[in-house]
Write a structure and sequence with these properties.
Strands 2, 4, 5, 7, 8 and 9 form a 6-stranded mixed sheet that branches. The protein starts with a helix and ends in a 5-residue tail after the last strand. The chain contains 15 helices and 9 strands. A hairpin with a 5-residue loop joins strand 4 and strand 5. It has helices spanning about 1-10, 15-25, 35-40, 45-50, 55-70, 75-85, 85-95, 100-110, 120-125, 130-140, 145-160, 160-175, 180-190, 190-195, 200-205; strands at about 210-220, 220-225, 230-235, 245-255, 260-270, 275-285, 295-305, 310, 315-320. The radius of gyration is 24 Å and the shape is globular.
């Protein structure tokens, strides 16, 4: 509606109107100045380019580059990527070499296979290889804003091509094992790590280890919706060297059809010295939210240590008003 309003109220042909808008966009956002805080009112400009600029790709891609400096152009890129894939990717590579962190971030965010609030770009879910040269160029970028987009992009790729994502992340870590790259790798593989993907766990330093024992798990036999309960586990390092341990837990929630739906929660990251026994605990709230529905009945909890899951422990979840 707002984009249509711009078209109705700004006289002239699209190229002239776009140029006039670009001239009035204002100063570029600095690192850390998120567009949600400063310039979200410019979203109609993005939609205006999407809806009315497809017949003028060069003008529109110039406008998207200008817009991303003060807001973002990630959504506006999508229809051009679909209609003019080669020309748009040529521009994307140019953006990836920009001296502007906002423009470099656009080069990775606009070509995400599963960009939030945008249609899935099927060519890249089927074959993400055209994305990789852009990510390779920017995974060690000086800007956290850019590196975050790189990680989110590879995480998208991991959903359909996990082996490619793991191989790419492993290569990055072998090329540069800096704290910044380590962070990018871990964020890139977060979805696979949550699934206990063993190769991904190995890349981020939490390979399954026979020397680490989950000695015991304790959880109440009953809980009520709205209450909080404590999960306790004991880990033992039987090895002769220190071990890094990533611990998650799964709540196997009862579904309406009587089945169970496992949901993963982070327990913590720990380092165990040789021979160390460590007790860890976590309070879990059965909080009522708009995104989770509880069904009273028998549920279960399990603990996952470096990708190795324990046997589920059953417990009863009762309605909030039950005695």
């Amino acid at each position: 509606m707002f984009a249509a309003g711009l078209k109705d109220r700004l006289p002239g042909e699209y190229p002239e109107v776009a140029a006039g808008i670009v001239d009035k966009l204002g100063p570029e956002l600095a690192e850390g100045e998120g567009y949600f805080n400063h310039s979200f009112h410019l979203w109609p400009v993005s939609r205006y380019i999407e809806d009315y600029g497809l017949e003028h790709p060069e003008v529109s891609l110039d406008a998207i580059e200008a817009l991303t400096r003060v807001f973002t152009g990630e959504w506006a890129v999508r229809p051009f990527l679909t209609r003019y894939p080669e020309a748009t990717m040529e521009r994307v590579h140019a953006w990836s070499r920009s001296d502007s962190h906002n423009v470099r971030r656009l080069s990775t965010e606009g070509i995400r296979p599963r960009l939030p609030w945008a249609a899935v770009h099927r060519p890249f879910t089927e074959d993400p290889s055209p994305i990789l040269p852009v990510l390779d160029r920017l995974y060690n970028d000086e800007s956290l804003y850019v590196r975050t987009s790189v990680a989110n992009n590879l995480n998208d790729i991991a959903k359909t091509h996990p082996d490619l994502a793991v191989a790419t992340a492993r290569r990055w870590r072998e090329e540069n094992d800096s704290p910044e790259v380590t962070w990018v790798v871990e964020r890139s593989l977060r979805g696979l790590v949550k699934q206990s993907h063993h190769e991904a766990l190995d890349v981020v330093g939490f390979a399954p280890d026979a020397g680490i024992e989950l000695h015991s798990v304790a959880f109440p036999v009953a809980a009520a919706i709205g209450s909080s309960v404590e999960l306790t586990a004991t880990l033992v390092n039987h090895g002769d060297t220190a071990r890094d341990v990533l611990v998650d837990y799964k709540l196997h929630f009862l579904k309406a059809n009587g089945g169970r739906r496992p949901t993963v929660f982070r327990f913590g990251r720990f380092t165990l010295a040789p021979g160390e026994e460590l007790e860890i605990s976590k309070t879990h709230p059965f909080r009522v939210t708009g995104t989770r529905t509880y069904y009273p009945g028998t549920q279960a909890v399990s603990v996952v240590v470096n990708g190795i899951e324990s046997e589920p422990i059953a417990f009863e979840l009762s309605a909030a008003d039950a005695e």
